[in-house]
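Protocol step 4 of 6: structure prediction from sequence.
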Amino acid sequence: MSAVVRSNAAKPPALLYLNGKANPVVSALAAQGVEIVTDNWQPDAALTARLIGVWVNFYHLLQPGEFLRVRRLRRQLRAAGVPFMVWNRDAPGYLNKAAWRLHLLSAAQPVDLYATHAVDERYRFGRAEVYFPNAASIERYNLSGVSLETLRDPAYYAWDVSCFCGMTPRRPEHHDRIRFFAALSERLLAKGCKIRFVDTETESLSLPQQIELIQKSRINLNYGATCDVPGQVPSGMPERVFGIPACGGFLLSDHRSHAAEDFMPGREWADFRTLDEAEMKIEHFLARFDESRDIAEAAHRRVMAQHTYAHRAQRLMDLLAASRAGLVAGGPRSSP
């Protein structure tokens, strides 16, 4: 029996969501009036006529049984022109799945639309591929009653530099981040900086505490993501690079190849490539507070105008409509 989240509209458009996990884009689609239908592998004609698409789980496609199940449903709905899609937020690491499995899946191209937060030239999992980044959950991460004008006051801040993220030794994907923050901490403390680096797997911060730390820190760092591949230039944009500006915080991030597609470097985005450059940039922005606030406010405006999950939901509806019309099938990889 299917579980259905209904909107108030009569016979609204529907998305068949077979991904199995909560997702902020799906929540935003529901808020925009799309009916989200889950666990229905035998949609009837009435539902099929309302479907804007079928969203399946990328990792389920790596399992032979689930792959065949999706293929049967895709064949069933092909005559109705219903596009199938996935959104991959784990590229290019793919949760360490075997390369041969990924190559086989790429050869099969099991979906019409492959949306990914990090384009990986090694594979092409769908007939069309689009860069589809994370975004800010502004219902949770926002100014929270603090004005941008208040954040212009140097006396408002408690910390020079901060970051909260996973830094747990038992997780190999955190080791590089642990080394980076250990070395950076030593350098910054020697300069007399007030720093707060939090391992969120050992110290839980409530949402208000997270926002307060962002807004009370002159510089908020981003370094590393669990989907990154060691030795490769980081590419995908983690949620926090949108959430920090949404809260009005100034973000200084490690270099990410997709950043220039989402923000204007130098005006809305500041980054570093090495530990030495991170130290230099921190010293630069601590000495140029107004410049950091100019960037923070410009990034905040960009996020609110283009990088919320409501924006992603609308973009996805446009992409699914284009896929259904055959406008993106087989076309070039594109950006939002």
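Step 5 (inspection) to follow. The chain is about 35% helix and 20% strand.
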